[in-house]
Write a structure and sequence with these properties.
The protein is an alpha/beta fold and 378 residues long. The chain contains 15 helices and 15 strands. Helix 1 packs across helix 3 and helix 3 runs parallel beside helix 5.
């Protein structure tokens, strides 16, 4: 079989010209944009815009990465480009305002689009998902480029190339999806189906400064000093895993992504390149890896005791409110997709919300969207 190619670009910081030159070299190593995108096609750029946040907290794709890629597209003669995402609690234009991303988009004349309407589309060949509610602006695009962020994730262990596509689900249907696909495995299979439906042409991962720990919205910034590029999102995510000392097969989107034909995670099926030439996985880990990266490496267990624990709702990951950080804003309550709410102001709004763990489906939407990093997962 043909190997999936992943490009590793060393990049110490977000100096604009440095990022631009790196991305340009990376695209060339994949055969050039002309190999992937037609000049007359309508292009949608999709960064990770989880929520409004300071750029330094590594919650969103860095504006310099977005701006540098926009510059490359314009220099290559691509004309019809928009940028959009289905954000967690706001709109694209509000999330990027004041981050510097809006300035780059204005400089390169790329409209920012707030998704306006959801359209239900059938996907009968899906393994887990047979339909999706997709923004009409996405359906009107010919080509998607995914500009993802290197972060941890409470449900899927990491969020990267495959997970970034969840921003193609329209509005409140994102929250609803967690009730329809409540387990890490069912949610991962849905994400694989979604990637196979949308078919992004290229995945670019911003890992110059990544997020470790309590991701994807409340973790800690950590320098990884790399960007990754590939047309195979599973291969890209698996390289990310190896750089942070995480077995790729422990990540549900990798495991199911290969089984369902989206991409490959096994080392022998991946070829790695840097601007200096081909490199082995072992050398890549040695040069660019961070073995103490804070990510969930606990093994998966499937035996009678773990099944019993799940049934009895004990020894399971649970979101927990850190009382002295909570400002009683109620965003966790609004974010909870469970009918009747698994977290609510049961003791009044003068006190932090309280969880009903019998209702909680462990989607961790509350933890993702908390603006004060007041919820962790234990």
């Amino acid at each position: 079989m043909n190997k999936s190619r992943v490009i590793i670009l060393p990049c110490d910081d977000y100096r604009e010209d440095f990022v631009y030159e790196g991305l340009k070299a990376g695209v060339a190593l994949l055969g050039g944009l002309g190999k992937m995108i037609g000049k007359g096609e309508r292009i949608l750029l999709k960064p990770n815009l989880l929520k409004k946040s300071e750029v330094e907290r590594a919650v969103i794709t860095h504006p310099v990465v977005v701006g540098a890629f926009a510059r490359i597209l314009r220099e290559e003669g691509y004309g019809n480009i928009i940028l959009a995402d289905s954000c967690g609690t706001s709109t694209t234009s509000r999330v990027i305002k004041g981050t510097g991303m809006d300035d780059y988009l204005q400089k390169y004349d790329i409209p920012v689009v707030d998704f306006s309407q959801g359209v239900r589309v059938e996907y009968p060949q899906g393994v887990q998902a047979k339909d999706f509610v997709i923004p009409k602006e996405l359906l009107e695009s010919d080509c998607v480029i995914s500009l993802c962020k290197m972060k941890t994730h409470a449900l899927e262990r990491i969020t990267g190339a495959v997970k970034n596509s969840y921003g193609f689900i329209y509005g409140l249907h994102k929250a609803k999806g967690h009730t329809v696909y409540p387990s890490a495995d069912s949610f991962a299979r849905m994400l694989v189906d979604l990637n196979q439906y949308v078919k992004p042409r290229l995945y670019v991962m911003d890992g110059i400064v990544a997020m470790e720990g309590n991701g994807p919205g409340s973790g800690d910034p950590v320098p990884m000093r790399v960007m990754l590029l590939s047309t195979d999102p599973v291969a890209l995510d698996s390289v990310y895993c190896r750089l942070v000392n995480l077995k790729p097969e422990l990540v549900p989107t990798n495991y199911h992504g290969e089984r369902m034909g989206l991409g490959v995670w096994q080392e022998e099926n991946i070829e790695l390149f840097t601007p200096s030439g081909e490199i082995t996985m072992q050398d890549a880990v040695q040069q660019f890896g961070k073995p103490d990266f804070n990510v969930d490496r606990s093994p998966m267990r499937s035996n009678i005791w773990t099944r019993a624990a799940k049934a009895l709702n004990i020894f399971q990951k649970k979101p927990r409110i850190i009382k002295d950080k909570c400002i009683r804003c109620g965003i966790c309550v609004k974010s909870c997709p469970v009918p009747g709410k698994a977290v609510d102001f049961k003791n009044g709004k003068g006190n932090p919300p309280v969880y009903d763990y019998k209702k909680c489906i462990r989607c961790f939407c509350c933890q993702e969207m908390c603006p004060e990093r007041a919820i962790d997962v234990r």
